[in-house]
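Researcher: Please translate sequence to structure tokens.
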Amino acid sequence: MNFTTLKQIVDRALQASEFEISGATLQSSSVTVLFRNFFSSDRLQLSNASKRSESDTSVVIRGELTSSFKGLSNLQAVAAFEVVNSEAEIRLQMTGLPQNWKLSDLFPTLKASLFDDFAYARVTLILDSQDKTPLPQDFPQPFGYRAYSPALQSKRIEGLSLQATLTLQSGLEGLEWFLSGSQWEIEGVIVLFEDKPSICLQSVPQDPLSIAGYEIPFLLNLVSVLLEPIEPSAPPVLTVCMQLEAVIEKDINGTALKIPVYFREHSSQMTVLNIWSNLSSASHIAFEEISSLISGASVAGQIPP
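Model: Translation complete:
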């Protein structure tokens, strides 16, 4: 497949009363897999479709999605087509989700979890046949969970990601204090394992929190993880986690030491907040320098109850 042929295929689809295209028409196995995984058939349909833009390497179509996506219909869609390594690829952005929509509406297994403690605005769901937003390679280990087994990894369905603005609705008291506000731009990946989502959403570092002589810019992670039971025949269990993380920088006798700090919570209904750090990178510090490392103002009374 070359771009000239791709453009001809897209132009022909635009001439029909309803825009319809498939991975088979595009001669692209990756597009076929994407469509079948998320639309149940190898077909993308748009009404009121028109060409939004065109360049030497891509053509972009916009319209209204008539194919059903996870029970959602009539979404606004922008589809960008290009050729990568002689294969047609698509990046489909979907907006216009219903008011008060939440991720748990898409995945009922997330109902009453931390994901429901936020309101979602300016949501964009993205399908990408190149899967440009995969799960982190070591996921979910950075959040305190055991790595996924090869058997579970083999069942993953990739290609879906999300961008949104989160606003805290209820519970999770003190979160605004750590993150300098109550609204955050997040983005990340959603990988499916049958009907259960493995999600890794992250914000950028927020305005620094000033405490005990340090300036600490926390960022927000919101994840869902599958826990694999010991019994192989038993299905995995979904759990969720919110993790705030930051890096504290400390000068130790002219050496810049970076200390990662993590705050982790599993439910707004729980009163336990796990706080820890990893000083393995500080192994070269002499024993007598420890007092300099930890010196600073008391945090008594500075952290909200």
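Researcher: Any highlights?
Model: The chain has a mean pLDDT of 85.
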